[in-house]
Amino acid sequence: MAELNSLAGLSPAELEAHWMPFTGNRHFKSDPRLFVAAEGMHYTTADGRSVLDAFSGLWCSNLGHGRKEIADAVSSQLTGLDYSPAFQFGHPTAFKLAKRLADMAPGDLNRVFFCNSGSEAADTALKIARAYWRAKGRPEKIRLVGRAQGYHGVNFGGISVGGMVGNRKTFGPALDVDHLPHTLLPENAFSRGLPEHGGEAMANRLLDIINLQGAENIAAVMVEPFAGSAGVILPPKGYLKKLRELCSAHDILLIFDEVITGFGRTGSAFAAQEFEVQPDIITTAKGITNGAIPMGAVFASEDIYATFMQGPEHIPELAHGYTYSAHPVACAAAMATLDIYENEKLFDRVNEMAPYFEEALHSLKGVAHVVDIRNYGLAGAIQLQPRDGEPGRRAMEVVLEAYRRGILLRWTGDTIAVAPPFIIERNQITQIAETLRDILQDTQ
Ligand code: PXG
């Protein structure tokens, strides 16, 4: 009976039927971890335990869970206008949301293209970048530049530009992309906030790629302002500014993938604002609807949009879009989400809590296995020494033990990532750090 309970009544056949994403299916199904409810900062597991969400689901539930305002908005949208064709017809909430997002975005990134996920946002942005140069009469500018350890989702453009080799190598030929080196430098270990060393030098590596391929062939550079999935790899001071400078000097579009950094994670609406660097395109998803309904959005500059607005007016200027682009229900969820960010001043709250979060994470310096700690805003990572011959195992064990002790974290390689909802309280931050300290001390 107890076992049935902890499986939420699922039969073995039901457990088997679901091919889970980015999960060791056999490992998971031998000891499932099931959530059956969520409210505020906590999940409830199938065996009735309360688990503190220290990862905002998967970097998306920035407002915490069970927000009634979002549920109400979704519900009334569903009964009012459940679906409206995405092509050739529109519905008002899409336009209202786009304007509201444009007002939040840095500089003149005023044109918003909707999709349903971060992966779709990435591929949309890459296609816009290539089509932009073609529309400008420079069709040879098609090459794309990414960065080692970058993550831009799982579609073909994203895995090509992305620099997580494990996500690409089993899928055959990807696009032919050049990659900048990542910015995780040993001399920056245990930096608080942006690291001091290597910013300009790492950005200047773009010159090697330009020399190799010719700027006249390069459409865009795509990076995350800080790399999230790879374990919160921060840009050293000056790095993003230098990248911007080089891209501008060589007529290369700069795309920021803000799927994680967008909507307040850094303490500003977008990392572009926080780091004072203006990209040409921003991709977003996740926090745009608090994770409650799938949605992504790509922000393009006035120049990019204007460049497309030529040719016969009845012909689509961009041959791209999804059945569920600007889905009415997602738009309603996003509007309600933006209301909450605003009404509860939650980006300010990130700034308020960030120093405390930083202090708590860095208090783990010197604890067994810890070789680096990184943080910015309400994002942090604790990197462990891998166990000999078993890379990734130690961090996995720590995260699974944390789950048993009532805290949801995430591991990537041997790094433990922390990214709590913005409503987290100080005592909960302390609870995360102290639980990790205890577990690390007990871990082989
Ligand atoms: N770009 C970035 C920067 C991301 O972080 C995506 C694109 C893809 O988004 P979708 O919605 O297609 O999954 C992401 C997703 C982790 C983790 O553990 C990170 C992501 C997803 C799941 C887990 O850090 N990022």
Question: Gist?
Answer:
It holds the Pfam family Aminotran_3. The chain has 444 residues and is of the alpha/beta class.
CATH homology group of the largest domain: Type I PLP-dependent aspartate aminotransferase-like (Major domain)
Low-confidence stretches: none
* CATH class designation of the largest domain: Alpha Beta
Question: Given the structure, what is the number of helices?
Answer: 17
User: In percent, how much strand structure appears in the residues?
Assistant: 15-25%
Q: What Rg, in angstroms, do the CA atoms define? A: 22 Å
The count of strands amounts to 15
Provide the structure class.
alpha/beta
Query: What is the overall pLDDT average?
Result: 97
The hetero compounds bound to this protein are: 3-[O-phosphonopyridoxyl]--amino-benzoic acid
Helix content: 25-40%
Which features characterize this protein?
444 residues; alpha/beta; Aspartate Aminotransferase, domain 1; Aspartate Aminotransferase, domain 2; 4-stranded mixed beta sheet; 17 helices; 15 strands; binds 3-[O-phosphonopyridoxyl]--amino-benzoic acid; PyrdxlP-dep_Trfase_major; Aspartate aminotransferase family protein; pyridoxal phosphate; transferase
